[in-house]
Description:
The complex is a heterodimer.
Chain A: E1 8-17, E2 20-30, E3 35-39, H1 46-53, E4 61-66, E5 72-75, H2 89-93, H3 101-110, H4 126-138, E6 144-148, H5 156-173, E7 176-181, H6 184-188, E8 193-198, E9 200-205, H7 207-211, H8 214-225, E10 237-239, E11 245-247
Parallel strand pairs in A: 3-7, 3-8, 5-6, 6-7
Antiparallel strand pairs in A: 1-2, 1-4, 8-9, 10-11
Helix pairs in contact in A: 3-4
Chain B: H1 3-28, H2 32-52, H3 56-77, H4 82-103, H5 110-115, H6 123-152, H7 154-159, H8 164-186, H9 191-203, H10 209-234, H11 238-255
Helix pairs in contact in B: 1-6, 1-8, 1-9, 1-10, 2-3, 2-4, 2-8, 2-9, 3-4, 3-8, 6-8, 9-10, 9-11, 10-11
Amino acid sequence: MTAAESILQLDNLSVTLGNRAIIDNINLKLEPGEIVSLIGPNGAGKTTVVRAILGLIKPSTGRIKKRSGLRIGYMPQRLALEKTIPLTVQRFLKMTKNVSQTNVSDALGKVGAQHTEQRPMQAISGGELQRVLLARALLRKPHLLVLDEPAQGVDISGQAELYRLIGNLRDELGCSVLMVSHDLHLVMSSTDRVICMNHHICCSGHPEHVSNDPAYHELFGLEATEGLALYAHHHDHDHDPEGNVIHNQEHNHEGCNHG
Amino acid sequence: MADFLWRALFAGIGVALVAGPLGSFVVWRRMSYFGDTLAHSALLGIALGIALDANLNIAVIVSCTLLACLLVALQQRKIISTDTLLGILAHSSLSLGLIAISLLEVRVDLLGYLFGDLLTVTGQELLWIYIGVAVILSLLLVFWRPLLAITVDEDLAQAEGYPVLWIRLLLMLLIAIVIAVAMKIVGVLLITSLMVIPAACARRLTNSPESMAALSSVAGCCAVVIGLFASLQWDTPTGPSIVVGATSLFLLVYALPLKGQKDIK
C-alpha cells in the first residue's frame, strides 16, 4: 500500500428517488487515517451517502471506488431491536463473523462499556447502546469506520466524550473515520476535514475554515452564526426547498435565501 | 396404546420440534400475519396437487413459496402497506383454495385440512413429516448465525457481508416447509399458533436466542401431548385441543411470578 493511495473515492455519486435527487454529484476522497465529518441539516442526504458507501442502496449514477480488501466497520444511526429477542450485549457482539470472547471483551473495553457485557440489549441506556454499536463496528478490525450520527441519544457531556473516544480510536487503530453529524461544533475538535452538504456538497475543508464559510451559515442559519457578526458575502447559488441549486445571475451581496 | 396414537404423538412432536425455532423467528420478526397468509395459501396448493395428481406436501411447499415470492415482489412496489397486502393475499388465496377444492371431482376432507386431523396420520405421512423436520433442522443449524443476524438488524447484517435477501428467502422457504408438514397436525387455519404460542411462552423464561428456540420446541411438544390426551379424554377435535393446550401453557407461564429476571418492558 502506498501512503498516497486513498481508501475510498466517490466519483460524481448521485442517488435519485422518483425524480427527486437525494444526493447530487458527490465527489469525495478519503485518505488513510483521516477523520472526515459529513455535516448538513436533516434530510440533506448524509445517511444516503453512507448507505451507498456500504452497498445498502445502489447509486443512480457515479462510482464508488474502494481500496481492494477494504474492511468497513459500520455503526448505524439507531438499532430498532425487537423486545422479544432475548439478546445480551455479548451475544449481540458475537454476531460479527470470526470473533472470540477475548475480542468481544477487548472491544467493549476500548469503548468503555465492559459493565454492559451480560446485560440484555434492551436494558442498556442510549449512551451505552451507542458504545456497544461502536464496539461491534470495531470487531470487524476495520480500515474504515463509518459512523452515522454516533452521538445520537447521548447527552451533551457524553457527546463530547464519545467524539474524543472516536479520535483516540483512530490514533490507536490507525483507521480512517467517516462520520455523519448535524452539529459542526461537536465534531470540530475531533475531525480533520468537514464536508458540508445539502443534497450536493456546499463547502468542505478544515473545520475552522468551514465554520467561517458563508455556505455553512447558509445551511445552518442563525443557530450557526450565533455570536458572530453578520456580514455580507458572495455566494454563487441559491437553494430551492428541495435543496437544489438555483444559479442566480443577479445575486449579490444581500446574502442567500435558502428555501 | 393403539398404533394410531403413537403415530399421532410422533407426528405432533416432530412438528413441534421445528415449529419452536421457526416460531421464534416469526415472533422476533413480527411475521405472524405473514405466516397466516402463507398457511392460507396452502389450501390452494392442495387443490392444485390433487388436480395434477402430485405429491401434496410438495404442492403445498411450492404454492407457499410462490406466494412468498409474490408477496416480496409486491412489497417492493410499495403500492399499499404490507399489512393490507397480507390481508388481501391471505383471504383471497384461502377463498381461491376453497373454490378450487369445490370444483374438484374428488371428495376432499376439507375440515381435516382446515383444522388438522392428527389421529388419521398414516405411516407414509409420518415419514414425510420427519423428512421435512430433518431438512428444516439441518438448514437451521447451518444458517443459524446469518438468520439471527438479519433478524437483529438487516442493514447491519448486509454491511457486514451477509447475503440478506437470500437469507430472508430461506426463512420463507423454511416456514413454507413447516406449513406443509404441520398442516396434517393442526390444519392451515391454526398452524401459526403452533409457531407463535410456544415461542411466546419461551420468551419469558429465557435470555438467549438459542435457549428461546430450544424451549419453544419443548413447550410445543408439551402442547401436543396435552392436546392429544385431552382430545382422547373428552373427545374434542385434536388440532384445536393442541392450540388450547399451548395457550394454557402460555397463560401459566405468564401467571407465574418470576424472580431474578427483570421483565423487559
